[in-house]
Write a structure and sequence with these properties.
The complex is a heterodimer of chains A (221) and B (506). Chain A has 221 residues and is an alpha/beta fold. Chain A contains eight helices and eleven strands. Chain A has two domains: 123 residues, Response regulator (Rossmann fold), CATH 3.40.50.2300; 95 residues, Winged helix-like DNA-binding domain superfamily/Winged helix DNA-binding domain (Arc Repressor Mutant, subunit A), CATH 1.10.10. The longest helix of chain A is centred in the middle third of the chain and has 20 residues. Chain A is elongated and about 60 Å long. By secondary structure, chain B is an alpha+beta fold. Helices cover 46% and strands 18% of the residues of chain B. In chain B, strands 4-3-7-6-5 form a five-stranded antiparallel sheet, with helices on one face. Chain B has a five-stranded mixed sheet with strand order 9-11-12-14-13, with helices on one face. In chain B, strands 1-2 form a two-stranded antiparallel ribbon. In chain B, a hairpin with a 2-residue loop joins strand 11 and strand 12. In chain B, helix 1 crosses helix 4, helix 2 runs antiparallel to helix 3 and helix 4 packs antiparallel against helix 5. Classes of the chains: A alpha/beta (221), B alpha+beta (506). At the A-B interface, helix 1 and helix 5 of A face helix 4, helix 5, helix 6 and strand 9 of B.
Chain lengths: 221, 506
């Protein structure tokens, strides 16, 4: 996996390069937005990390330019600014995610992973969560060791919904809507029953965490 | 922190104290106008009195003096040498009066009848009243010699001192009744005589009084009219000031515009110019404060990010090495520094005057709770705290990222103060028309006597050195920006229950 880092501060740039290299990414760093398009044209990248506050052409301009050229590259914005305005405009322009400085390297790595995975899903229809390989097109899931897990249709729908939002909290209502096509009448308790059955079938391959009062989150085991 | 600029802006827009009414320009103008106007009316009255009333008074006097002349004309020397006043026939054959108006010689009230035995006049009291007859008027006369002896009439009527033209006037008192008397010096048959005529003053008093009343009423009416016109004029003239006040009041501190100078009268123009200078200064300093914050945020956060990330890389490379503990200590320090920098910036950004009304949008609190809990879930897992929510529908008009910041601070605080294995619950809902956000923890709680102090900036409750001591200040500031308030309550299990109440949306 190859990442282009557009960051003018050498201390930050160096640390991110080293940190993501440890995670197994190849990171190319440039210090200006002007230098980015040439690099992107020269090689295939899976993700670009763009700092908003750059000398000369800023991160907004770069995002706008890439998107206007129809470049589908996943874009992660990092910025020292806070406030909703910047966030909204960056996402409106076509950035895929947004991280405010100062951040921890593991968090940055997690975001990169999620963005690359999401971009991958669009092409392959296959998701990896923990030891699970989830085949969205074939509607089946492989556990550790490659054996197919035997899920009911309701359990599959719940897993599908959770895995599409893996790492985020999915509310009970949303899960209900996901399986309402299979069963018209459903109660909150029924969801809990399905989740608990799903949980036991997943075993140690992945965890479905209950968040009191909010819903569920699919996590790497 | 350059907070003063924004405070000045908010002071202008929000905290202008109501000026005391005694200092209203309208009141002062009226005050300055009223005294001269009153003096003017008094002077006018005095002049009118002297130019209109005094001649009337003089006419009465002249009429009285003619009567005295008339009486003098009827003094005759009797064959025995005695002088006597001989009255003419009744008015039907009034030859004696000639061109003069008939004398107003009438007696009323027997008490005024002089007791003098030589008094020959009473007969005319029975005459029919002449055309000039004035009812209730009493007439007196006396003809006396130079030595003071009375020839005819009321012997106790005191003569007036002669001034000129052989005439003299005075106000006298006749048996307790004020009378106007005129004395005429004349000579009959070689003897110097003093003819004194007097009349009571009811009629002339009434006439003078009536004239004075009319003049006074007229002048007062004039004064009232002038005052009313002045009031109207002042109100109209002060209209630009009222407009100016409305324009200033409608200014929002973060978007100060110069006041328009076009329809402003010349006298107010310098005031508007000074105000505009001040407004622009305030706006510039508010803007420069926001620029400063943006720059400070960037200049602080970027190196912090670099340091933090470098230390993380270093820690990984040194895992298990001899420097591991020292690197971990450095990381802790950097994290605290980063947290404090973030909190300081958030506090400055939460300043109520830094936000426009248009920044406020309707927000569903359950969604906010979900987002914040998701953000802090990993931290709670690390701290072994069961983070959960209990959401009822609630909506507020708010600034999303500020409310997010508020709730993050409350939940973060709760996680910090909850022992491992404990519970933190985030709630939202609506009670009695107020939307609320609430975070309850399992920790030691906040004793009532500390509940005010924990709101102070840089106050550390637990003393664990982790927090910046700014969390609750940020919460309070953001609550204030949303016209809400922070309540520190007891949790159901002895922990803290932090509640922020907002006016509900709509």
């Amino acid at each position: 996996m190859r990442i282009l880092l557009v960051e003018d501060d050498s201390l930050v740039s160096d640390a991110i390069t080293r940190g993501l290299s440890v995670e197994g990414y190849v990171v190319d760093a440039v210090a200006t937005a002007e230098a980015a398009p040439a690099r992107l044209a020269a090689a295939h990248y899976d993700l670009a990390i763009v700092d908003l506050g750059l000398p000369g052409m800023d991160g907004f301009d770069l995002v706008r330019r890439l998107r206007s050229e129809g470049n589908p590259l996943p874009l992660l914005i990092v910025t020292a600014r806070d406030g909703l305005d910047d966030r909204v405009s960056a996402l409106d322009l076509g950035a895929d995610d947004y991280l405010t400085k100062p951040f921890a390297l593991p968090e940055l790595a997690a975001r990169c992973r999620a963005l690359i995975r999401r971009a991958g899903v669009a092409g392959s229809n296959e998701l990896n969560v923990g030891a699970l390989r989830i085949d969205l097109a074939g509607k089946r899931v492989l556990g550790a060791g490659g054996k197919t897990l035997d899920l009911t249709r309701r359990e599959w729908s719940i897993l599908e919904c959770l895995s599409l939002h893996s790492g985020r909290v999915v509310s009970k209502d949303r899960l209900m809507q996901a399986i309402v096509g299979w069963e018209e009448e459903i109660s909150g308790n029924a969801i809990e029953v399905h989740v608990s059955r799903l949980r036991s079938k997943l075993g140690a391959d992945a965890t479905v965490r209950s968040i009191r009062g909010l819903g569920y989150r699919l996590e790497d085991a | 922190m350059p907070r003063c600029a924004a405070s000045a802006a908010s002071a202008i827009a929000l905290k202008t104290p109501e000026p005391r009414r005694a200092h209203s320009i309208r009141g002062r103008l009226l005050g300055y106008l009223l005294l001269p106007l009153l003096l003017l009316v008094a002077a006018g009255f005095w002049i009118d009195h002297h130019t209109l009333v005094m001649p009337v008074y003089a006419a009465f006097d002249r009429s009285l003096s003619r009567t005295a002349t008339e009486i003098a004309a009827h003094i005759e020397q009797q064959p025995d040498g005695q002088l006597k006043v001989r009255w003419p026939e009744p008015p039907g054959a009034s030859r004696g009066f000639g061109r003069h108006p008939p004398p107003r010689l009438t007696w009323h009230g027997p008490s005024h009848r002089p007791p003098s035995p030589g008094f020959a006049a009473p007969s005319f009291a029975h005459h029919a009243p002449p055309p000039h007859f004035r009812p209730h008027e009493t007439f007196l006369f006396r003809v006396s010699r130079a030595d003071g002896s009375t020839i005819a009439g009321n012997a106790d009527l005191v003569a007036a001192p002669i001034e000129h033209n052989n005439l003299g006037y005075r106000n006298a008192d006749y048996h307790g009744t004020p009378v106007r008397a005129v004395s005429l010096r004349t000579t009959v048959a070689g003897e110097a005589l003093l003819v004194t005529a007097a009349e009571t003053m009811h009629w002339r008093d009434r006439v003078v009084h009536r004239l004075d009343t009319i003049i006074g009423l007229g002048d007062s009416l004039q004064l009232l009219l002038v005052l009313a016109i002045s009031m109207l004029g002042i109100t109209v003239a002060l209209r630009p000031l009222r407009r100016l006040r409305e324009q200033i009041a409608s200014q929002s501190p973060e978007k100060l515009k110069p006041l328009p100078t076009a329809p402003i009268p010349g006298e107010v123009r310098p005031l508007v110019d000074s105000l505009n200078t001040l407004l622009m200064t305030v706006r510039d300093s508010a803007q420069s404060q926001q620029h400063f914050l943006t720059n400070a945020a960037h200049q602080l956060r970027t190196p912090l990010t670099g340091l933090k990330a470098q230390l993380e890389v270093l820690a990984r490379e040194n895992a298990g090495g001899p420097q591991q503990a020292r690197i971990a200590a450095l990381q802790g320090g950097i994290d605290r520094l980063a947290h404090t920098a973030n909190q300081l910036l958030a506090l400055a950004r939460a300043e109520p005057s830094a936000h426009r009304a248009s920044d406020f949008t309707p927000l569903a609190l359950p969604e906010l709770v979900g987002a914040v809990v998701s953000t802090l879930l990993d931290r709670s897992l690390v701290a072994d705290v069961d983070l959960g929510a209990d959401c009822q529908p609630a909506e507020v008009e708010g600034i999303h990222w500020l409310l997010h910041e508020l709730l993050v601070n409350l939940v973060d605080n709760a996680i910090r103060h909850t022992p491992p294995g404990g519970q933190v619950t985030v709630r939202c809902g609506t009670t009695e028309g107020l939307a609320y956000l609430e975070v309850e923890d399992d920790g030691p709680g906040i004793p009532p006597d500390l509940r005010q102090r924990v709101r102070e900036r840089f106050y550390h409750a637990g003393g664990n050195g982790q927090g910046s001591g700014l969390g609750l200040s940020i919460v309070e500031e953001i609550a204030r920006t949303h016209r809400g308030r922070l309540l520190i309550l007891d949790g159901s299990t002895g922990g803290a229950r932090m509640r922020v109440e907002f006016p509900a949306a709509g």
